Write a sequence for this structure.
């Protein structure tokens, strides 16, 4: 069913069971959001055009590290140059364009530029290394890749060339194109490199890429944007899966424009606000709850740096007089514990979102009291739901904002079910399932895993264990499967286990999470060496470094002769976890 079929302008298509649409229906754990504010059937280019009409000359984006400031008019003009450049390369509506970069101006231009022509932006985690990058580019058949040159010592160009050595071959002197022809990346034809300096022969420097567009391409932008459908897929974000390799969650204009609007409304963002965005743009947190929330309200986006630095973020908040700040709990902890915290005037702060991982109650209290964020909100969701389904609002009692993930968002339905799929009574834990406008279209060209996630009635199974009380407040109490969250990054043990099994000395590996005061959870691996082999912890870590993302590298590694097993021979991860908790002397923190 399309968004048109749902009649999103009607105010009663997903009416809740009570007047405010927030409380459970009777004694069952089912809630549906209020519907007084209609859903908007619009595209991202329409959202940006509206921002230009309303707030054109005001600050749209500030990149503190580079000193760049853009008005809304500037943002549209520069992103349209990127859109025209893509057309000059032959990129068309529905083609996939990857972005592999930290938080830079060009990331923002790529987001709006791809949307203008209907190309699908593919977010690639800057922490990805060669195996993950190759999978991502091939899984969705990216035709173009916009990429940073390097970040924190990581040579992105070198990594890409290790997969596609053809990038370094010089085109024939008579050739009119520098298109890439790669054996391992057969669909990738165009590589665009950001920043100053030389680029490989089969790549384009960003400035040259933009300059290649002419009046013909620029003249096509308006009619192309007008022909877009809000139900079109516009973004693919990779989320790890329990079966191994990451899956491409596919989101539409309709999904993310509306989620951004409602999350901004919960914070009461307006054109008077300045939102500091240290969270990465490759996540929904930065791209939707940051960029699009500001585009919907006229609030200015302030980017403190390419990647998170606690001291730098504090300084930029104070200097730019930011009124809102986003972050995962570990970011807020780092800022609160920074040695120069007291030197920065944070009195302008009012609101923001803390999300991405369970939030320790004490951290939330410190944010409210010491960072002046008396209207900070907690959000809960997942990439597959655009992302937010529960969020506290600025009017909610502080006790609820520090101890729950809030109440249901507008136009969203949630139920808590047991192992048989039956809705459980209020207050009882079960799996949280979500339905509504925010649910993704599916995993890119993966109908089997899409069916596993979304049933025939449109319910998205989150895999999270949750409770809902009689007033609709939600608590996340665990996960149905053994996914762990390290510093806001979802980590699935099966993927790491399969990687470790590639070590020539490893017989078997089991990976699980253990509590960590700073990151929420840390990755722990138990490893059984092959008969006759000896392997050290340092060897395991060295095997991982540079080959998988840093947040997947096990922090704790133990060599064991065997795993604790069930009667049927299955490894007992809970027993391993309990043993490590005792050995390390750690305890699970109280969270919302």
């Amino acid at each position: 069913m399309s968004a048109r079929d749902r009649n999103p302008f009607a105010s009663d298509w997903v009416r809740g069971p009570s007047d405010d649409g927030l409380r459970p229906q009777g004694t069952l754990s089912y809630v549906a959001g209020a519907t007084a504010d209609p859903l908007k059937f619009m595209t991202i280019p329409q959202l940006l055009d509206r921002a230009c009409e309303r707030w054109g000359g005001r600050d749209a984006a500030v990149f503190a590290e580079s000193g760049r400031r853009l008005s809304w008019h500037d943002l549209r003009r520069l992103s349209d140059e990127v859109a025209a450049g893509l057309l000059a390369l032959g990129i068309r509506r529905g083609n996939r364009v990857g972005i592999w970069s930290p938080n830079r101006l060009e990331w923002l231009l790529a987001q709006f530029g791809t949307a203008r022509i209907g190309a699908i932006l593919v977010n690639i985690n800057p922490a990805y290394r060669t195996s993950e990058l190759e999978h991502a580019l091939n899984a969705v058949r990216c035709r173009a890749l916009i990429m940073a040159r390097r970040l924190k010592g990581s040579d992105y160009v070198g990594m890409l060339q290790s997969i596609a050595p053809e990038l370094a071959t010089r085109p024939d002197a008579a050739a009119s194109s520098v298109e890439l022809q790669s054996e391992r990346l057969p669909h990738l034809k165009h590589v665009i490199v950001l920043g100053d300096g030389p680029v490989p022969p089969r790549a384009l420097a960003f400035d040259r890429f933009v300059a290649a567009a002419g009046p013909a391409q620029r003249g096509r932008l308006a009619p192309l944007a007008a022909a877009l459908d809000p139900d079109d897929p516009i973004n693919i974000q990779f989320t790890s899966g329990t079966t191994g390799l990451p899956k491409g969650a596919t989101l539409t204009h309709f999904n993310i424009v509306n989620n951004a609007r409602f999350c901004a409304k919960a914070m009461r963002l307006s054109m008077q606000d300045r939102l500091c965005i240290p969270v990465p743009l490759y996540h929904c947190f930065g791209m939707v709850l940051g960029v699009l929330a500001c585009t919907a309200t006229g609030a200015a986006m302030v980017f403190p740096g390419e990647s998170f630095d606690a001291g730098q973020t504090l300084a930029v908040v104070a200097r730019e007089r930011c009124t809102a700040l986003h972050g995962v709990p570990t970011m807020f902890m780092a800022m609160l514990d920074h040695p120069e915290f007291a030197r920065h005037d944070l009195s302008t702060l009012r609101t923001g979102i803390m999300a991405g991982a369970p939030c320790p109650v004490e951290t939330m209290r410190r944010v409210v009291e010491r960072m002046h964020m008396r209207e900070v909100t907690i959000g809960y969701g997942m990439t597959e739901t655009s992302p937010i389904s529960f969020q506290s609002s600025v009017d909610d009692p502080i006790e609820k904002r520090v101890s729950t993930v809030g109440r249901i968002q507008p136009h969203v339905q949630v139920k808590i079910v047991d192992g048989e799929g039956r809705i459980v009574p209020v207050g009882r834990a079960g799996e949280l399932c979500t339905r509504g406008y925010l649910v993704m279209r599916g995993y890119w060209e993966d109908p089997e895993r899409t069916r596993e996630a979304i049933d025939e009635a449109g319910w998205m199974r989150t895999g999270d264990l949750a409770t809902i009380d009689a007033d609709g407040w939600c608590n996340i109490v665990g996960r149905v499967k053994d996914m762990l969250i390290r510093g806001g990054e979802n980590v699935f043990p099966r993927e790491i286990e399969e990687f470790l099994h590639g070590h020539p000395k490893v017989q078997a590996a089991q990976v699980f999470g253990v509590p960590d005061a700073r990151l929420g959870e840390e990755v722990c691996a138990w490893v059984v060496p092959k008969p006759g082999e000896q392997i050290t912890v340092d060897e395991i870590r060295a095997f991982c470094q540079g080959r998988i993302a840093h947040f997947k590298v096990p922090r704790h590694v133990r060599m064991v002769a065997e795993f604790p097993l069930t009667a049927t021979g299955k490894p007992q991860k809970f027993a391993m976890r309990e043993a490590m908790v005792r050995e390390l002397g750690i305890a699970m923190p109280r969270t919302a």
